[in-house]
Amino acid sequence: MPSQQARELADSIEAINLELIQLVRGCSEEQWRTDCNDEGDNRTVAVISHHVGHGHANTMEWLETVPADDLNAENAEHAATYHEVEREETIQLLVESGDRLCARVAELSEEQLARKAFHRGEGRELTVAAIAELGQRHVAGHLATIRSALDLPAWSTA
Length: 158
Prior knowledge:
mainly alpha
């Protein structure tokens, strides 16, 4: 049976993902191509936004298996591959992968949320609930970076 905590986690992920989608939809072309200097790698708003959508799939995989991928190498490869990503493609990815992630998180039971596994990206054992929270923080952190690069307020007033 899905838990209340799972529903709250899913709602939190959905809210922050929708905020990012709204920001992406409202970007000018110049803003879309703005360098963010996220983690010192000068990824653009476009690349980071697409990365977040791609990251939803990673979070889904972590919910099931908690993989031991080298995230820095994966992020660099993603940035190189999607340097010229289109906005509509990114919006579609954010919507579709975000919806799948939220639906998966919302159906987790208390027992599933409490399951633990070692997460190499974090370097420690985490519960599935903590991994879902990482998914939310992943979106929130990158959204904050984009807002800062575009000189926008920290939170949407819309």
